[in-house]
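Severity: low
Component: inverse-folding endpoint
Summary: output formatting inconsistent between runs
Steps to reproduce: submit the following structure tokens with default settings.
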């Protein structure tokens, strides 16, 4: 059994065995608190569950959306991704009645002889079509507020109107936000041993401006120097002769072991990053307050693994370890049958994911064509109800 599916199934069984039943805002759950999951990158394998079919394209699209700093579901819908559609539609149904110009956002509106209004909202499918085809409607209802993409790329950005003292003129003032992703890349290149390599999505002042507070609310990266043997193992994949050359090409037999090690690292450096990456490995640890084990966590594992690969390529390091710190881990009661089915399934070997050799100046420049999933063998999809 691959280690990823083994850990994941163990977490599911833990909740079934030890979870307490709780009433939540959107249904009853079995819940435990404070768990973790770890995955070590090796042999080119990628952490994508095999005990049920995962929708790789949709999860990748969502990550690219975050990295663009986008918060409108129009980009997602245009790329056949419906991960956030339910949240946007729920927000529309909840708030449209409060609008001053309500008629323009409704499917129909009429009044009887006594002036009592009868309104009809767009169905979910009709809502999707309006977002895709009506820019004004999309501007009003496709936005999810200051969620992940905004916080990752524009933390603290604000726009407000200010009148001058006599009230005759209105000025629009925009506060420049902080691009946490670009800042992370800069710090990794300049100070890779820093303990401040963090990106946060939990901005308390912006919680009222989000359709849903962030579930995975922050991540931290950590780098370390690779040993000579680790670098040679990587080099072996390109050319087995590199190892022999590296170990025999020392400057003088009387040199100290320390100098030999230094020269060998420098010799590997001279081959260039396309053969042997630079001397560091990079790990990522994300923290999550609310963890829907059947639906959300498999997506989060894949998404942060892919993000780690992108960051590693951008700073010429090697992906090392992915760690999830999980808070409230739960299974909805209406998901239990699907969970029990998944627990009976024997995992397959993990797939591989390859990033294109295209050089990008910013992670937001990646496209779906730059990310290729290979050798993914999995069990059929399991339907789990989504609780928005």
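Observed output (run 2 of 3):
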């Amino acid at each position: 059994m691959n280690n990823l599916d083994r850990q994941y199934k163990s977490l599911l069984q833990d909740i079934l065995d030890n979870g307490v039943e709780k009433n939540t805002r959107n249904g009853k759950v079995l819940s435990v608190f404070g768990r973790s999951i770890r995955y070590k990158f090796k042999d080119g394998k990628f952490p994508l569950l095999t005990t049920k079919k995962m929708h790789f394209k949709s999860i990748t699209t969502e990550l690219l959306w975050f990295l663009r700093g986008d918060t409108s579901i129009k980009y997602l819908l245009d790329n056949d991704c419906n991960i956030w559609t339910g949240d946007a539609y729920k927000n529309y149904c909840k708030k449209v009645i409060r609008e001053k110009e309500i008629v323009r956002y409704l499917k129909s509106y009429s009044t009887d002889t006594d002036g009592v209004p009868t309104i009809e909202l767009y169905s979910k499918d009709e809502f999707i079509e309006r977002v895709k085809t009506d820019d004004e409607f999309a501007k009003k209802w496709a936005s999810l507020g200051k969620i992940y993409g905004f916080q990752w790329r524009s933390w603290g950005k604000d726009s407000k109107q200010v009148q001058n003292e006599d009230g005759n003129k209105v000025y629009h003032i925009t506060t420049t936000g902080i691009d946490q992703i670009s800042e992370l890349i800069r710090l990794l290149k300049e100070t890779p041993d820093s303990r401040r390599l963090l990106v946060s999505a939990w901005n308390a002042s912006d919680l009222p401006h989000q359709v849903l507070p962030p579930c995975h609310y922050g991540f931290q990266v950590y780098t370390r120097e690779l040993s000579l043997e680790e670098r040679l193992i990587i080099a072996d994949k390109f050319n087995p002769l590199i190892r022999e050359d590296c170990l025999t090409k020392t400057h003088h037999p009387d040199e100290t072991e320390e100098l030999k090690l230094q020269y060998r690292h420098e010799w590997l450096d001279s081959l260039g990053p396309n053969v042997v990456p630079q001397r560091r490995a990079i790990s990522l640890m994300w923290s999550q307050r609310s963890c829907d084990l059947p639906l959300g966590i498999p997506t989060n594992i894949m998404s942060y693994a892919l993000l780690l690969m992108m960051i590693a390529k951008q700073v010429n390091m090697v992906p090392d370890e992915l760690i999830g710190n999980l808070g409230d881990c739960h299974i909805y009661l209406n998901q239990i049958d699907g969970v029990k089915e998944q627990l009976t399934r024997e995992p397959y070997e993990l797939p591989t994911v390859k990033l294109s050799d295209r050089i990008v100046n910013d992670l937001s420049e990646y496209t779906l064509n730059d990310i290729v999933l290979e050798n993914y063998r999995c069990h059929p999809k399991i339907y789990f109800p989504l609780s928005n």
